[in-house]
């Protein structure tokens, strides 16, 4: 029959074994963390592009998206981060005359490019015609998606002027007489959770020179 001393010895052995096990597990994990930290060290590169008419030079982690470069490094917070997966269009900007989701593109891919954000389209004292039309036709409610909507709308009308067909009509000659259905399709990548789509189409129609 085992006495109290035997039980105490077992407790001590158990505690010692537990401590050894923890140490054996912790040391390799710490070494792994240090290795990972070294492996994840950022690689920085110089990037130069023109934003809203001004040349900007940045030193950026190669993994920085164009969206984060605009918002975090250039403090142009008008461009919004919505889904961050290219599904909502809130981050739409105009690059080299074409609209794009800035969350899906790395900043280093735009060396030398001309980039226009909502801040570059107009100011409160001198609104871009599309901005003024959005105000007139209540093309926004909460306003979060509005910068991307406006940038996309401006580009859509540019696509019409340039005769770029969409996958709906596929007809160059139909571009100048864009229907509401076609306009909605071209804008379908920009989500308005408040549902102001009809008002947005009215604003675009006015700017395009047709009666709303």
Characterize the structure shown:
The chain is an alpha+beta fold. It has two domains: 44-121, Beta-grasp domain (Ubiquitin-like (UB roll)); 124-212, [2Fe-2S]-binding domain (DNA polymerase, domain 1, Orthogonal Bundle), CATH 1.10.150. 42% of the residues lie in helices and 13% in strands. The chain contains seven helices and five strands, in the order H-E-E-H-E-E-E-H-H-H-H-H. The protein has helices at residues 4-39, 66-73, 118-121, 129-136, 146-161, 180-186, 197-207; strands spanning 44-51, 54-61, 92-95, 98-101, 114-116. Strands 2-1-5-3-4 form a five-stranded mixed beta sheet, with helices on both faces. A hairpin with a 2-residue loop joins strand 1 (44-51) and strand 2 (54-61). Helix 4 (129-136) packs across helix 7 (197-207). Mean pLDDT is 84; it is low at 167-175.
| Mean pLDDT over the full residue set | 84
| Major sheet characteristics | 5 strands, mixed
Annotated CATH topology of the largest domain: DNA polymerase, domain 1
Architecture (CATH level 2) name of the largest domain: Orthogonal Bundle
What is the CATH H-level superfamily of the largest domain?
Answer: [2Fe-2S]-binding domain
Q: N-to-C terminal Cα separation, in Å?
A: 98 Å
Number of domains: 2
Helix coverage percent of residues? Answer: 40-55%
Proportion of residues in β-strands: 5-15%
What's the Cα radius of gyration? 28 Å
Task: Catalogue the unreliable spans.
Answer: 167-175
| Strand and helix order | HEEHEEEHHHHH
Q: Give the number of DSSP strands.
A: 5
Overall 3D geometry?
A: elongated
Helix run count: 7
Lateral strand order in the biggest sheet: 2-1-5-3-4
Determine and state the CATH class of the largest domain: Mainly Alpha
* Structural class estimated from helices and strands: alpha+beta
């Amino acid at each position: 029959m085992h006495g109290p001393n035997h039980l105490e010895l077992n407790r001590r052995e158990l505690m010692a074994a537990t401590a050894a096990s923890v140490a054996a597990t912790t040391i390799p994990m710490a070494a792994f963390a240090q290795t990972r930290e070294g492996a994840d060290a950022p690689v920085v590169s110089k990037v130069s592009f023109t934003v809203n008419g001004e040349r900007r030079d940045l030193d950026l982690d190669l993994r920085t998206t164009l969206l984060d470069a605009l918002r975090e490094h250039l403090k142009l917070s008008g461009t919004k981060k919505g889904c961050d997966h290219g599904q909502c269009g809130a981050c739409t900007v105009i690059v080299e005359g074409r609209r794009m989701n800035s969350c899906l593109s790395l900043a280093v891919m735009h060396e030398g490019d001309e980039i226009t954000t909502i801040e570059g389209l107009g100011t409160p004292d001198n609104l871009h015609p599309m901005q003024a039309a959005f105000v007139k036709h209540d093309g926004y409610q909460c306003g979060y998606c509005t910068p991307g909507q406006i940038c996309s709308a401006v580009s859509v009308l540019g696509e019409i002027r340039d005769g770029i067909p969409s996958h709906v009509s596929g007809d160059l000659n139909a571009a100048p007489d864009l229907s509401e259905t076609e306009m909605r399709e071209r804008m379908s990548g920009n989500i308005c959770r408040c549902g102001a789509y009809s008002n947005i189409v009215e604003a675009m129609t006015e700017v395009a020179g047709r009666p709303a």
